TrEMBL record:
Short name of one Pfam family: Glyco_hydro_79C
Domain Beta-glucuronidase C-terminal: from-to ranges: 396-494
Name assigned to this protein: Beta-glucuronidase C-terminal domain-containing protein
Listed InterPro entries: GH, GH79_Enzymes, GlcAase_C
Stretches the record annotates as Disordered: 501-523
Keywords (A to Z) from UniProt: Signal
Organism: Dacryopinax primogenitus (strain DJM 731) (Brown rot fungus)
Span of the signal peptide: 1-22
Presence of keyword Transport: no
Taxonomy, superkingdom: Eukaryota
Gene3D superfamilies according to UniProt: Glycosidases
Length: 538
């Protein structure tokens, strides 16, 4: 009897959130490729991959989990600060890489695992890319600060040769990392040196086709210093005739820098920061370039303890990713390094990242890859558009098939930060369900490990114990905090409780019931979680 009373109290106190699904695709953005990638700090790339003869099986397993859900692996950008500290090995004794590192210190997260001050790379450095899943697209960074066009050409040649005849792909070269932070470089000087390096690569007439370039990689785009997309283009970047049409991507970097987990998760703060990039996105589109965040993350300097390495970070990441996609950002590369706190996972053992786990392991951010893989899975491009929720802490996005306009999924993010104590509940109702979803369903919306019936919508839930937790997360009831990286436990699909349009709608007005959509669906939710409503599998 007590349980019945408590349940009644929870239901009465639940915050009701009504989401009306549109009859036609609303304002939305096209997503043609997997939009979330790994940016890997260049100094330790071979460790993530493993040497050509012995792949890092943990990395391979975790990325295969994504392939199994989306059909394609996440793209990889190899670069970062050490991109401009990497030189070709002076002799053939260095097959992979040799690096010089400053002393480690626990004075800050960035000093605990500092970047190399110097990296010498040999041919096996780029050959390590072969260890990634088939279909992986690589963007390789090239040292611009060295002002050595001949070395740029040779790096490009080695990278090209390393992927020929393999399952991975060379997508682009990025010449220089954050040139707006070089100190005494002007935009004109940057353009001159960038063009020299790019022309050296193009004029080499390598037998692998024309290269593609990813431009800019600015840390803090500034119109005043001309380190902005329009300013750099006006300064002459990629202007020579031989480079026309080869520069296709405009990349800039962004870290949110929130020092509290509640601020990191805040929808309004995320929105405000992304709005600052609207002029850059527009400038890229005007120039015929695809705008991407070539490096991004929660807090720069390798992440902040209690912010970047806790469960709330993945709630932020899902909201941030979908907000960015609806603004025209085509791809986001989240930065990773050896033992950094904002990593998707640690590819090696003995990382002091506050988790106290001795072996290779995932961090909360890894779940972003799983959520995005399943939410956007489709044989072709999809469109993503925001849906109105009427609740400041709740965001929702629809995912439609670009070729048929069919509603495939709804992604729902609750950004209210739960830490401990009573967890606030939410009652979500979805009106105007697609006609195919109007059949009968499990009226209780209870979990089920069986396949949903034809036309029966279902929910997969990203559960976090609390936003300050470092572990205990599950996606669709399964844990990936296993020693192998494979899913543990049975998958849990929660059936959406559906009321057909011809019946009594659950909290839906008469006019809505008469719309061209189907019925109304309902599901219970909680603070600090992500739900994905499925109308069809990938």
């Amino acid at each position: 009897m007590v349980w019945h009373v408590l349940l009644l109290v929870l239901v009465v106190q639940a915050t009701v959130v009504k989401i009306t699904l549109p009859h036609v695709v609303p304002s939305s953005q096209l997503v043609s490729t997997f939009p979330v990638g790994l940016s890997i700090e260049q100094d330790h790339f071979p460790i993530w991959a493993g040497p050509p003869s012995a792949q890092n099986t943990y990395t391979q397993t975790l990325l295969k989990n994504v392939v199994d859900r989306s059909g394609v692996p996440p793209p990889v950008r190899v670069g970062g600060t050490t991109e401009d500290r990497t030189w070709l090995a002076p002799n053939t004794s260095i097959l992979s890489s040799a690096a010089v590192f400053p002393p480690s210190s626990n004075a800050s997260t960035s000093r605990l695992y500092p970047e190399a001050t110097l990296v010498y790379a040999g041919p096996e450095f780029w050959e390590s890319a072969r260890n990634f899943p088939n279909g992986t697209e690589f963007t390789f960074g090239i040292n611009l600060r060295a002002q050595d066009p001949v070395m740029a050409r040779e790096v490009a040649r080695m990278a090209w040769e390393s992927v020929q005849g393999t399952g991975v792909k060379l997508r682009a070269f990025e010449i220089g990392n954050e040139p707006d932070m070089y100190g005494n470089w002007s935009a004109t000087f940057y353009a001159s040196n960038w063009n020299a390096a790019a022309l050296s690569i193009v004029n080499a007439s390598l037998p692998y086709g024309q290269p593609t370039f990813q431009l800019f990689a600015f840390a803090n785009p500034s119109a005043r210093a001309n380190f902005s997309i329009s300013g750099a283009l006006n300064a002459g970047v990629a202007a020579p005739e031989r480079l026309r049409g080869l520069a296709r991507i405009a990349s800039e970097h962004h870290y949110q820098w929130s020092t509290k987990i509640a601020d990191l998760m805040s929808k309004s703060i995320i929105s405000s920061q992304l709005d600052q990039f609207s002029p850059e996105i527009s400038a890229a589109q005007k120039a015929g370039l695809q705008f991407e965040f070539g490096e991004t993350g929660s807090v720069g300097g390798h992440g902040a303890p209690g912010v970047s390495n806790v469960a709330g970070s993945v709630i932020w990441a899902v909201s941030y990713t979908f907000q960015a996609l609806t603004r025209g950002v085509k791809r986001l590369y989240f930065h990773n390094g050896l033992c950094y706190r904002y990593n998707f996972f640690q590819p090696v053992s003995s990382c002091a990242d506050d988790t106290h786990l001795s072996g290779a392991h995932i961090l909360p951010m890894y779940h972003l890859l799983l959520v995005v893989a399943e939410a956007l899975s489709y044989p072709g491009p999809v469109r993503v558009g925001e849906l109105q929720t009427g609740a400041g802490e709740v965001s929702a996005w629809g995912v439609w098939a670009a070729d048929t306009d069919q509603l495939l999924r709804v992604v729902l993010v609750n950004s209210a930060p739960y830490t401990s104590g009573t967890r606030a509940s939410y009652a979500y109702t979805f009106s105007n369900l697609p006609p195919s979803a109007s059949g009968s369903s499990n009226s209780s919306g209870s979990p089920s490990s069986s396949e949903p019936a034809l036309g029966q919508p279902w929910i997969r839930r990203l559960f976090v114990p609390g936003v300050e937790s470092m572990g205990g997360l599950t996606w669709a009831g399964q844990s990936y905090e296993t020693t192998s990286g494979k899913a543990g436990g049975k998958r849990v699909d929660e059936l959406l409780a559906v009321t057909p349009a011809s019946g009594a709608g659950a909290g839906v007005g008469e006019d809505e019931e008469r719309g061209s959509g189907g019925g109304t669906g309902s599901i219970q939710g909680w603070e600090s979680e992500v739900l994905v409503l499925f109308f069809r599998e990938g």
